[in-house]
Amino acid sequence: MGVRVKVACVGGGPAALYLSILLKRQDPSHDITVHERNPAGSTYGWGVTYWGGLLEKLRAGDPESARAISEHSVRWSDGVAHVGDRTTVHHGDQGHGIGRHRLLDILATRARSLGVRVEFESEITDAAQLPDADLVVAGDGVRSVLRERHADHFGAEIALGRNKYIWLGTTKVFDSFTFAFVETAHGWIWCYGYRFSDERSTCVIECSPETWRGLGLHEASESDGLALLERLFAGPLDGHGLIGRAQADGSAQWLNFRTLTNRTWHRGNVVLLGDAAHTTHYSIGAGTTLALEDAMALAGALRGSPELGPALAAYERERRSALLSVQSAARYSARWYENLPRYIGLDPAQMFALLGQRHSPLLPHIPPQLYYRIDRAAEQLEPLRRMKRWLGPRVARTLHGRAGAARD
């Protein structure tokens, strides 16, 4: 893209906004519009998480927006797990949280300052509505309308997770990334809590479908459901309330996570970005990071090739390769929670250690206490650590191959 081009980004999420910033920095003459179907300020969700490595990449891409994101983020360095009335603490890597609304506002403001047009209440349902665009970026989420217009070409596949989850907010400000597991007469229910400002935290609550129905959450009104969850998690919440949808219209919904993959990510001048191209389970906290990295890769590919087709192909190759290990980790993480009874009876310190190892392809196939002992020994013995790293991917490939053969 060495000449002036017209770019239309459909969907005003972090990936599309950041892509518009990067492309304008590469060439201020580019004509870029971001189309967002919702009104300004009506974003869904609460806070998003990321780790320090993302900030370094953002600083390389656009120091000004990176500085604003860093200044408006909160940080934590510990993880805390409450299992019934027992608590354990893990000192780990520093994490960051920022409100989704704040993040979008920072990126939209920066994009406008560079000359990008950000148009709200601008719904695009077909690339044909943008006949003059040289490049159409489908950043319109997991249910992408642009992608579904050519569903046979993109080959989207969606796998629904087994567990039920709901995305909530709370006025409880968690000092650490907090896990809380509560036993009920109908099974275990748990939450992930992390702050994203000095006043609010995100609280994701998950349970098996049997527990969800047993507790009556499948038929409870939003207010009754929140009241029940507040009682169940009164300890970790310190008596604070839970808040439903982070916008006026609609209410918080119980969902099954949708893991999305696509056979290809581009068609003609249309390219998929972020959740329109792929999703990874929320339990690894990587969705926003991966979307922003998509934007970096696409901007780099467009800078490196004068022709659109080869650039889009290069972008897809790069991101598919980068996502392989993350998607694998996300699948194993989701399964760990789906198989929670296998681990919940362990000593809390052991359980928390295996919670940290939930991305391992070996863990589901080794008795948990034996895996814990092997993992502790591997920390001391380099040969055992190397063997563990060598064996895990091979077990994963073997089991994946068997699963594929069984489907065939």
Radius of gyration: 22 Å
Number of strands: 16
Largest sheet: 8 strands, mixed
- Mean pLDDT, to the nearest integer, reads 91
Q: Give the structural class.
A: alpha/beta
Residue share in β-strands? 15-25%
Give the overall silhouette.
globular
Largest sheet: spatial strand order = 3-5-4-10-11-12-9-13
Q: What is the ordering of alpha helices and beta strands?
A: EHEEHHEEHEEHHEEEEEHHHEEEEHHHHH
Distance between the termini: 43 Å
Spans where pLDDT lies below 50 across 5 or more residues: 402-408
Q: Please estimate the helix content.
A: 40-55%
Number of helices: 14
Give a short summary of the structure.
The chain contains 14 helices and 16 strands. It has 408 residues and is an alpha/beta fold.
Could you characterize what this model shows?
With 408 residues, the chain is α/β, with parallel strands linked by helices. Helix content is 42%, strand content 23%. The chain is built from 14 helices and 16 strands. The strands form three sheets. The chain has an eight-stranded mixed β-sheet. Strands 6-2-1-7-16-15 form a six-stranded mixed β-sheet. A hairpin with a 2-residue loop joins strand 15 and strand 16. Helix 1 runs parallel beside helix 4 and helix 10 runs antiparallel to helix 11. The radius of gyration is 22 Å and the shape is globular. The chain starts with 5 loop residues before the first strand and ends with a helix. The C terminus is likely disordered.
